[in-house]
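Dear colleague,

Thank you for sharing your sequence with our group. We've completed the structure prediction you requested, and as agreed, I am returning the results in plain text so they can be pasted directly into your records. Please verify that the sequence below matches your submission; if there's any discrepancy, let me know and we will rerun it promptly.
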Amino acid sequence: MHYHDSDDLKRLGEFKKLAPKEFSAFVEFDKIVGRDDGAIPRKYRELIAIAVACTTQCPYCLDVHTRAAKRAGATREEVSETAMLAAALRAGAAVTHGALAVKLFDQAAAPQAAGADSRK
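Please find the predicted structure tokens below.
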């Protein structure tokens, strides 16, 4: 068994029955990616979606938005650069979280020496 099976997407219809209002709201919200009348052109909207899908690691989103980006005129080079930009930002987040870890380390109380009296 593997976790990413495109047939799983067929189960989304169950959400329509199980949580109709929430599912309907999601579907409407999700449509903004494919807008053609926004300030951001469609090709760039799809490239942004690919970058987000790379960072959230959603194979279904990658499938949908990579095909849509190609239809919108994106090139293999643009998709590749998009993936690398996403990787750089994700790495940047790891580094900045590392800075937070060092700060939290510095703020943490020093461990007491063995046998020290903690009532002082």
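Summary note from our side: Residues 29 and 69 are 19 Å apart (CA to CA).

Kind regards,
the structure core
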